[in-house]
Amino acid sequence: MTILIFDIDGTLIDSTGLDSKLYRQAVQEVLGSVQFRSDWSEYTDVTDPGILRQILREKGVEHPSVAEPIAAARARFGELVADRLAEEPCRPLPGAVGAMARLIRDPKVRVGLATGGWGHTAAMKLRSAGFPTESIPIFTADHHHQRIGIMRACLSSLAPGETEASPKVTYIGDGPWDLKASSELDWGFVAVGPRLQGKWRRWIPHFADPSWSEVLGLTVSG
Ligand SMILES: [Mg+2]
């Protein structure tokens, strides 16, 4: 049994630019002026609520007072993403919808999604890009504010009783934080897209590349 757990933004969906712009806008509408770090990697937890918790902590807002601004930013971000998708749908990465359909049908593979984004926007973007959301278990930052917590929850849903260090689990992502989380969990990792090009041996540009299933460790067929 091969377990494959995918990140969403930048991995299955070409949404990273849109996403970070609208996220910044939502946070600023709720909190006022915020000086964001130039690189998301500079935040301790690169997830929608994780970044916001750190911003709030640095502004001197501590638990439990963080709950209300986080809920407000989440709601506003959802509105902004819904408005944008109504005008312009999200695009999947080349080949990603077909690759996912094939993996779902493969009896030797279990597939799940684990994103650092909130659940409402993840579902909207996946539907907009044409992914069959009802047939894939999706774990998001609504489950946990740390990426490894989200990834662990996804694994225990796909393979109850499987140990975290299982060599058969592979995470597929586009960010340095995805690579970091995978190595913390001792999972396999496949890098997707330009951000990690040249930085990790198991790499594909997208899923229209003929090498994708081999790089993911699957037998090439059909
Ligand atoms: Mg990503």
Task: Map the helices and strands.
Elements: E1 2-6, E2 13-14, H1 16-31, H2 48-58, H3 67-87, E3 91-92, H4 96-105, E4 109-114, H5 119-129, E5 138-139, H6 147-158, E6 169-173, H7 176-185, E7 188-192, E8 203-204, H8 212-215
Parallel strand pairs: 1-4, 1-6, 4-5, 6-7, 7-8
Antiparallel strand pairs: 2-3
Helix pairs in contact: 1-3, 3-5
Bound molecules: magnesium ion.
The site of magnesium ion has 7 residues, from loops.
Q: Which bin fits the share of residues in helices?
A: 40-55%
Assembly category: single chain
Given as residue ranges, the uncertain stretches (5+ residues, pLDDT < 50) are: none
- Tell me the CATH topology of the largest domain: Rossmann fold
Give the distinct bound molecules. magnesium ion
What's the alpha carbon Rg, rounded to whole Å? 17 Å
Shape: globular
Output the structural class. Answer: alpha/beta
What's the helix-strand series? EEHHHEHEHEHEHEEH
Strand runs, count = 8
Notes on the protein architecture:
By secondary structure, the chain is of the alpha/beta class. It folds into two domains: 2-15 and 91-215, HAD superfamily/HAD-like (Rossmann fold, 3-Layer(aba) Sandwich), CATH 3.40.50; 16-87, DNA polymerase, domain 1 (Orthogonal Bundle). The chain contains eight helices and eight strands; from the N terminus they run ββαααβαβαβαβαββα. It has helices spanning 16-31, 48-58, 67-87, 96-105, 119-129, 147-158, 176-185, 212-215; strands spanning 2-6, 13-14, 91-92, 109-114, 138-139, 169-173, 188-192, 203-204. Strands 5-4-1-6-7-8 form a six-stranded parallel sheet, with helices on both faces. Strand 4, helix 5 (119-129) and strand 5 form a beta-alpha-beta unit. Helix 1 (16-31) crosses helix 3 and helix 3 runs parallel beside helix 5. The structure holds magnesium ion. Residues 7, 9-11, 173-175 line the site of magnesium ion.
